[in-house]
Specification:
The protein contains eight helices and no strands. With 165 residues, it is mainly alpha-helical. The protein starts with 13 loop residues before the first helix and ends in a 16-residue tail after the last helix. About 10% of the residues have low confidence.
Length: 165
């Protein structure tokens, strides 16, 4: 059975309505109420909200691909400013690419690393350090596997997904 196209109605979304109603008050009260615990509001936070409110909204005259492309061109960290619907589409595309083109039929496993609570505030405020954390984790796995399997020239492939919530 063919799928039927149903245009998105982002303004009908409860999340869209909440963000629209509360964003200005949130920004106004952030410095006073949340900055000490959460750090400064990240500069791309404003772009994230702006793109979220415009994503797939024909009233803004911006199709989803244009918002997605514009955010990628304007920011080095495109995923951080991509609206949820566009981000979800890219996640599915990346997963399909990994499962069909990247992942080989070799033994593999999943590792989940968590940041200890005492360090989470540092990484929440300094997201630029996360790539160092990933590199350290993969280097440790590589050394461990090489020693355990007695493969001094063994190689490791990794796919990372950060979940900052």
């Amino acid at each position: 059975m063919p799928t039927i196209y149903h245009p998105r109605r982002p303004r009908a979304s409860p999340l869209w309505q909440i963000v629209t109603a509360a964003w200005e008050a949130f920004v106004a009260g952030y410095e006073k109420c949340r900055r000490a615990a959460m750090g400064p509001l990240r500069p791309n936070g404003f772009a994230v909200v702006r793109n979220f409110l415009r994503c797939s909204d024909r009233a803004c005259g911006v199709p989803p691909q244009a918002v997605d492309g514009a955010s990628r061109a304007a920011n080095s960290n495109a995923a951080a400013t991509t609206p949820p619907a566009c981000h979800q589409r890219r996640v599915r595309q990346a997963a399909a690419c990994i499962s069909t083109s990247v992942r080989h039929e070799v033994p593999h496993r999943q590792f989940v690393f968590t940041i200890p609570k005492i360090l989470r505030g540092i990484f929440r405020k300094r997201r630029d350090l996360l790539h160092l954390l990933f590199n350290t984790a993969t280097d440790t796995l590589l050394e461990s596997f090489r020693a355990r399997l007695n493969l001094p020239d063994g190689r490791l492939a990794a796919v990372a997904a950060g979940h900052p919530f």
